[in-house]
């Protein structure tokens, strides 16, 4: 009698490889182990990450802060270049630097990686970048999820997202209610585009200008792809250092919406912030996008960070200490503007002058 052949459907025939997923988990464990804190309980592999909340007893009234984000279409650049170990830095930066805006110390993160097909080594490289970013941010990576979506994503396509939790003392929360007339606005330089505006950048540079990722760009001193994949600067520990050493009234994380729109989120209705463009020169990548797509300045400024990744609003008497602390930590920072009464100004933030040559 001939042996019967099972022709029934299976998870594998539907495109999901459980064994590849298990292999990815084994490969990523070494990196996750590096991104920890003393409060983390247990290791990778459980259904939930555990964090010892008794560590918060030192707070009188601890407020938990939470944030979630992704890195947008920058993942397309990573995919096309075949470089997967930096995109995690972007993810961590997008999440933890939202947490620190209110003065919160980032405690832990979880990630979600969605792929068309699990390539274990590739997934492990993505997690490696996330873990390294968590180390730079001072937080732990306590868990995550890798999901395989055949039929929805191509075999080489992927997306990443993450969520983070931080803590801040209730009477130390930063924000608009602390800002006063006369405060100084300190800008901290970005490392490039960070993780915003890539839909515009890709449309302009690839679809309209026809540039290749391996094109050597003299102004960059490297290829276009290397410039576009530059990881997002992570400011959380720098911002926390400021709050420990001098008075800070507010932070603003400059992401989608640009400098003016994001700073406006922490400026109270009665006040107005003026930012002087002549105090800095944006990196060449911003000029290239503007020229290649004939993008108007207003469109650039409401889409890209234009060279400023984080802003601190401090009283005038804190300026010197703040700039010294940031310089000692290797952060390029400068006084970019000031806070005045709203008066006849209808907008919360105005950009004036032209960028330095």
Q: Could you list some keywords that capture this structure?
A:
single chain, 357 residues, alpha+beta, 6-stranded mixed sheet, 4-stranded mixed sheet, globular
Helical amount = 25-40%
Q: Helix and strand succession?
A: HEEEHHEHEEEHEEHHEHEHHEHEE
Percent in strands: 15-25%
Q: Pairing-aware structural class of the strands and helices?
A: alpha+beta
What's the rounded overall pLDDT mean?
Answer: 91
The total strand number stands at 14
Total helical segments: 11
Poorly predicted regions are none
Quaternary state of this entry equals single chain
Distance between the termini: 85 Å
Major pleated sheet: 6 strands, mixed
Radius of gyration: 22 Å
What is the molecular shape? globular
Summarize the structure.
The chain is an alpha+beta fold and 357 residues long. It is built from eleven helices and 14 strands.
Overview of the molecule:
With 357 residues, the protein is α+β, with helices and mostly antiparallel strands. 31% of the residues lie in helices and 24% in strands. The protein contains 11 helices and 14 strands. The strands form 4 sheets. Strands 10-12-7-13-11-14 form a 6-stranded mixed β-sheet. The radius of gyration is 22 Å and the shape is globular. The model has no long low-confidence stretch (mean pLDDT 91).
């Amino acid at each position: 009698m001939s042996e019967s052949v099972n022709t029934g459907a299976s998870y594998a025939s539907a495109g999901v490889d459980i064994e590849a997923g298990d292999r990815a988990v084994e490969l990523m464990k070494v990196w996750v182990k590096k991104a920890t804190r003393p409060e983390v309980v247990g290791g990778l592999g459980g259904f939930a990450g555990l964090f010892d909340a008794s560590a918060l007893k030192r707070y009188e009234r601890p407020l938990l802060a939470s944030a979630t984000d992704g890195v947008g279409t920058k993942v397309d650049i990573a995919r096309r270049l075949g470089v997967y170990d930096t995109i995690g830095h972007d993810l961590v930066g997008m999440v933890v630097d939202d947490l620190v805006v209110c003065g919160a110390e980032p405690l832990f993160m979880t990630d979600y990686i969605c792929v068309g097909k699990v390539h274990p080594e590739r997934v492990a490289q993505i997690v490696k970048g996330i873990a390294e970013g968590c180390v730079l941010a001072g937080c732990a990576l306590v868990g995550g999820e890798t999901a395989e979506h055949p039929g929805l994503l191509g075999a080489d396509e992927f997306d990443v997202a993450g969520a983070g939790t931080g803590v801040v003392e209730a009477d130390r929360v930063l924000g608009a209610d602390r800002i006063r007339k006369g405060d100084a606005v300190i800008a901290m330089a970005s490392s490039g585009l960070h993780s915003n505006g890539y839909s515009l950048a890709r449309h302009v540079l690839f679809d309209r200008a026809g540039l290749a990722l391996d094109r050597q760009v003299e102004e960059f001193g490297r290829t276009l792809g290397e410039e576009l994949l530059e990881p997002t600067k992570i400011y959380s520990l720098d911002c926390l250092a400021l709050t420990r050493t001098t008075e800070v009234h507010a932070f603003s994380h400059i992401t989608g919406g640009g400098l003016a729109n994001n700073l406006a989120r922490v400026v109270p209705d009665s006040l107005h912030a003026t930012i002087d463009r002549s105090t800095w020169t944006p990196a060449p990548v911003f000029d290239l996008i503007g020229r290649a797509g004939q993008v108007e300045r207003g469109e650039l400024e409401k889409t890209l960070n234009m060279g400023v990744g984080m802003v601190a609003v401090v009283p005038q008497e804190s300026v010197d200490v703040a700039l010294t602390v940031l310089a000692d930590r290797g952060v390029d920072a400068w006084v970019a503007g000031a806070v005045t009464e709203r008066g006849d100004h209808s907008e919360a933030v105005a950009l004036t002058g032209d960028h330095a040559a």
